[in-house]
Amino acid sequence: MSSLYPRTKELSRSRKSQSDSPPSSPSPTAKNFGHDRTSRLDSSSTGDSVADRLLSRTSSYTRRENRLASLGKAEEEGSAKDFKKMYEDALTENVKLKSKLEESKDELGKIRSQLDKVTQKQNKISEKSTVLETEKKEKRALERKVSQMEEELKVLNDFKSDNQRLKDENGALIRVISKLSK
Fold first, then answer.
1. What are phi and psi of 45, to 5 degrees?
2. In 17-49, which ranges are continuous DSSP H helix?
3. Which of 3, 30, 43, 130 could cross-link with 26 by S-S, CB 3.0 to 4.6 Å?
4. pLDDT digits over 133-165, tens only?
5. Stated pTM of the model
């Protein structure tokens, strides 16, 4: 049957029914019915010859084959239309997907630029924070120096007062010694 009708296996399997299957492998029950029918025809028909019966069987097989062939052609035309429709559907879907892809690419570009801007802002903020941190460290260092200098000033003032006191004592001692030496 597949050599007479060039259809795919899948299509022929889905379209087969018991009435379309060839009579070459009937079930035992069908054999009995066919045998009974043949014997009844032989007994009931008086003017029919064996050749007429074979001719009628052949013509029924021919009609069946012609019907199946026309179905096959209709299916081929339908499948060609289906393929064309599927192709057109695929093309339209591809166009839609391409447009969505382009939109996604544009959106991705926008998001990347926003991300770059945010990253630059964060870098500036982090630079500012590092600058601020550096300034804070410098300020602490300067405050330490100022406190050290204030301590040194206190010590220096103490030295000045000690020096002044020693000068005064030295002057007093010089006067006492000059009075004693006179």
1. -90, 125
2. 28-44
3. 30
4. 899 999 999 999 999 999 999 999 999 999 999
5. 0.35
User: Tell me: the pLDDT tens digits for 75-98?
Assistant: 666 666 788 889 999 999 999 999
Q: For residue 173, give Cα distances in angstroms to 163, 166, 168, 169, 177.
A: 15, 10, 9, 6, 6
Task: Name residues whose C-beta falls within 8 Å of residue 26's C-beta, 6 or more positions apart in sequence.
Answer: 34
CB under 8 Å to 75, separation ≥6 — which residues? 7, 11, 15
Measured distance CA(104)–CA(42) in Å, rounded = 79
- Percent with pLDDT over 90 in the chain: 43
> E-strand spans in the chain?
none
CA dihedral (116, 121, 126, 131) positive or negative: positive
* Structure token digits, residue 116: 């770059």
For 95, the token pair is 């166009």
Number of residues assigned to the chain: 182
Distances (CA, A) of 77 to 74, 81, 113, 122, 179: 5, 6, 53, 66, 149
- Cα(13)–Cα(33) distance, integer angstroms: 26
